[in-house]
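P.,

For your records, the input lines for the assembly:
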Amino acid sequence: MNSLSKGQKHLLWRIIASAVVFALFYIIDAITGGLGVPLSFAIVTISYVTSGYDVIYSAVRNIIRGKLLDEKFLMLIATVGAYALGDFGEAAAVMLFYQTGEFFQSYAVGKSRRSIKELMDICPEYASVERGGELCVVMPDEVEVGEIIVVKPGEKIPLDGIVTSGASWLDTSSLTGESLRREAKEGSEVYSGSINLSGVIKVKVTKDFDNSTVSRILELVENSAFHKSKSEAFITRFARVYTPFVVICALLVAFVPPLFVGSFATWLRRALIFLVISCPCALVISVPLSFFASIGCASKHGILIKGSNWLEALGRAKTIVFDKTGTLTKGNFVITRICPSDSSDDDRLMSAAAHCEYYSDHPIAEVIKSAYPHINAGDIEGFEAISGCGVLAKVAGKAIRCGKASYISQYCDVTVSSNGVHVCKDGEYLGYIEIADEVKGESASLIATLHQKGINTVMLTGDSHQAADWVAKELGLGSVHAELMPQDKTAVLSTLIAERSSKNAVVFVGDGTNDAPALSLADVGIAMGSLGSDAAIEAADIVIMDDDISKINTSLSLCRKTNSIVRQNIAFSLGVKLLVMVLGTLGFANMWAAVFADVGVAFIAILNSFRAFKL
Amino acid sequence: MKKIYKVTGLDCAHCAANFEAVVKKTHGVTDAKVNFLLEKMIITCEDENAAQAAIEAGKKAFPDCVVQGV
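Structure tokens returned:
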């Protein structure tokens, strides 16, 4: 009861009072064996007015303003029509039932508004800022860039910034949906909306409130409701013609058949049924609500969907195109295999390679150096990098070369022409080290799940065929395009988009760093690992805040579920309304059925939409 | 210019769509969006007067609704 608004409570009491009077009327009527017309009329009218006086009031006001086709006006006509035909009981019952439906509908809308508010409850209410040696508590939007804010344990970080002193653990779950705790120490970047868990930290503000992460997320989620999906656009257009259509049907039913078969009263009664179901509310509320609920639910899991149009499109995905580095793989290189030649061993190979690469700053050199800690830098006498081939260094008087097979084979016998770093020491071939980008743990299971769902997977990469094939085999990817220049990626994507049927969608998943063209070209562009990356948030249609690739599947399931809820609601609402109209015309449905088809259906459709609030 | 308002007292999403249509038709208003669930309206208009006129038009068509600046 506490969750009801004042207006709702008021309406509830009126409904109860009206129902009591109505029930008493029937009981007394049955006991006395008929109360007679004047008395029945009086009692029923008390019940009717108690439940429906506000409907009558606004309907009359609307008539004066010349606005005739609104729901209340039509309810008034329907009930007054029933009165005119002498069906007092039916008139009162319809009004009572209608108001009960309105009550439930308003309750459902209220509940969804509260759920939405809860989702949006990540906004920090205040900021403690250091000004003139004192700590002032101000609104977050009053803090300027460069100021120092203090965040105590248990508080929300109000603005994005960099920690200048203190250390703590942060809960970023409201941003990423991940309950993983992040460490914050001097120099770490922190994002508004995170909750400070353990220590006091001082943060130098780097972005004002409007540009801070939390504001951007809220703005995105709120504005998403304005990017309408096709279903929503359809419903809006449909609603515009639905009411006039039903009213014209009602007029036809009332006046045409009596010309041929007579009995005007019967046909008028049937026509009134049409008026009761002429409001398209069930659809107009439930469809956007489903999308919005789903977008809200996604944002709770660290998935930002910029509009219901993208949500709908993702649900229709048939092909998902992945960028390799940073998306399916972690983007950091690891040694996958050490292959010494017959004359050498692991240690000799690694030692030679690490010494040789010591002065190189190539990412691959870093991996080799960190894998071999016993480097004696004093032994290294000369170093030279041969661009595109490898490196040459003189270590303890011996020339060591590291590089591609084609480069090394000029100096010694390369026995295996494999992809990797080959090492040659004074004419002796020591073997090679295989280095690859580490595959994300969840990538393989994601690809398998996608295939199960009937979705094609494609990987695009600028890497060599060998490296790409290895990743593709590891993950079980559908197809691979390797050695692509950035412009080739968009070309591959365009072909895929041209080949798909208009019912399906091609999705591109990238890390948002340099794939903005692909993100915007695809039917749906998804950027991964975007917490703190404005560019990615800008370019993508759907933004996954952390690195968790399995969220692609989460998003997909959610979108498919939402699409099916929307389809169910459209089919159910239209189906019931159509059925009641047909049965009503044939004389098999009464006004009660019509009221159910109006408000009852709206209520059920809204309840169905609620399912989209949860994964 | 863009103005954001809180709109309460609309009965249903259909009314909200009609409210939006009325506001959109006002002279000087280039675009208007009303979200029934968020009870929020965004008006893109030429100046303050256009926004005020739009709100008046909306209130006239829907006397029960309340429009507040945010």
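Two observations worth noting. The interface with chain A takes residues 11-15, 17, 33, 35-40, 42, 60-61, 63-64 of chain B (CB under 8 Å). Chain B has two helices and four strands.

Regards
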